[in-house]
Design brief:
It comes from Nonomuraea zeae. Pfam families: RNHCP. The protein has one domain. Helix content is 10%, strand content 22%. The protein contains 2 helices and 6 strands; from the N terminus they run E-E-E-E-E-E-H-H. The strands form 2 sheets. Strands 3-4-5-6 form a 4-stranded antiparallel β-sheet, covered by helices on one side. Bound molecules: zinc ion (2 copies). The site of one zinc ion has 8 residues, from loops.
């Protein structure tokens, strides 16, 4: 798991009194400002934006428990695949640094998922080209 790049640090978002426009059935994405319905195909708890995959640090241990006081912005850092083949997004909280794994939803942006999945391969220190010359 690659650690957070310190150069990528953004200034802390000030806690606004407008609670990210969150209602019971929808939320406003803190990444791209999309209004996102909580109803998602294939998952009981929509916890990230289907467009840019950004999430909010609201869950403490169990998805949907809403017990975290942090409420920091969680950026999609990486993807991983469970033994049963299900994809998970690794979210990285920009405020407290906590990592969490979240199931993808059926309507998540496939290009955004792929972009994260191949990010390690774009590291020029890896001899990816060696694979192609076999
Ligand atoms: Zn978004
Ligand atoms: Zn946090």
């Amino acid at each position: 798991m690659p650690r957070r790049n310190p150069g990528r640090e953004r200034p802390q978002q000030r806690k606004s009194t407008a609670r990210h426009g969150e209602r019971g059935d929808a939320f406003r994405c803190v990444g791209c400002r999309l209004d996102v319905s909580m109803i998602a195909p294939g998952t009981a708890h929509r916890n990230h934006c289907p467009h840019c995959l950004t999430s909010l640090h609201v869950d403490h241990r169990i998805p949907g428990d809403r017990r975290a006081a942090c409420r920091g912005r969680m950026a999609a850092l990486s993807v991983t695949v469970r033994q049963d083949g299900e994809w998970l997004i690794i979210h990285d909280c920009q405020s407290c640094g906590e990592l969490s794994a979240n199931r993808i939803a059926g309507d998540d942006n496939a290009l955004a998922l792929l972009r994260i999945a191949i990010r390690p391969l774009s590291d020029t220190r890896l001899p990816v080209s060696a694979l192609l010359t076999l």
